[in-house]
Specification:
Layout (H helix, E strand, L loop, with lengths): L2 E10 L2 E10 L5 E6 L5 H7 L8 E6 L2 E2 L5 H7 E4 L10 H7 L12 H11 L16 H14 L4 E5 L7 H17 L3 E5 L3 H7 L2 E6 L2 E7 H6 L4 H10 L1
Parallel strand pairs: 3-8, 3-9, 6-7, 7-8
Antiparallel strand pairs: 1-2, 1-4, 4-5, 9-10
């Protein structure tokens, strides 16, 4: 599936946050949204599954306006993973399978195997399956959140700083997982992050957001080696 974002603008509490944003994702690509703090990156991500309303413009998912889809159907196809883990009270297994149970092809008899395989995918041991989610570390909770999202078999993952609470080894595991999802599941992944090392390792393209404006969209190597805009060059100079 692909997203097409056409001239969207958005405001929060009366403040203009996004201004005339346009870009398209490709099927089975990792598109990283980067920029300075407060540029509107998370707000942009939230517009893509209607967690944030827009003032103008249009967003299409595979050619269909997301505003003609039910929120439930949209969010089954475009699943968001937040920066702060949002698990509910219950076991790890309960959390992982919560969304998967909404799929028509959910198999109760295979549910335990599914939960265990997803734990392994995100680098956690199967002995955590029956643990209460509140007893996990923040990093473990984040990986359970990712496992829960994958269990829904989405076409698009919307990831908001999902590695910010992880140690370097866990970040590497998630990095490899995202690459696997792209390759094997043909998943499109939009990732908001400040981690430029991660961007250079996994992104196909990057979009640079500055003060609510998308000032450059480039292939990842092109951007880091030869940004087209002065704003892009200035941004890279601040992180060098």
């Amino acid at each position: 599936m692909s997203l097409s974002i056409n001239n969207i603008s958005a405001s929060v509490l009366g403040n203009n946050i996004l201004e005339n944003i346009s870009f398209q994702t490709k099927e089975s690509e990792i598109f990283c949204i980067i920029g300075t703090s407060g540029a509107g990156k998370s707000t942009l991500l939230r517009t893509l599954n209607r967690l944030q309303p827009i003032n103008s413009g249009e967003i299409y998912l595979n050619g269909q306006s997301i505003y003609l889809m039910t929120p439930q159907n949209l969010r089954k196809n475009a699943v968001m993973i937040l920066q702060t883990p949002s698990l509910f009270e219950g076991t790890v297994e309960d959390n992982i399978l919560f969304g998967a149970k909404l799929n028509s092809d959910f198999n109760k008899t295979e549910s335990r195997k599914l939960a265990i395989s997803l734990l392994e995918k995100v680098g956690l041991e199967s002995n955590l399956l029956l643990r209460n989610s509140s007893s996990l570390s923040v990093g473990q909770q984040q990986r359970v959140s990712i496992a829960r999202s994958i269990a829904m078999k989405p076409s698009i993952l919307l990831c908001d700083e999902i590695t910010s609470s992880l140690d370097p080894q866990s970040t590497l595991h998630i990095q490899n997982l995202l690459l696997t999802l792209k390759k094997e599941e043909k998943m499109t992944i939009l990732l908001v992050t400040h981690n430029m090392d991660l961007v250079q390792q996994i992104a196909d393209r990057v979009g640079l957001l500055i003060d609510g404006k998308l000032v450059e969209v480039s292939a990842v190597n092109d951007f880091f080696n030869n940004p087209r805009t002065e704003l892009g060059r200035n941004f890279l100079s601040t992180i060098a």
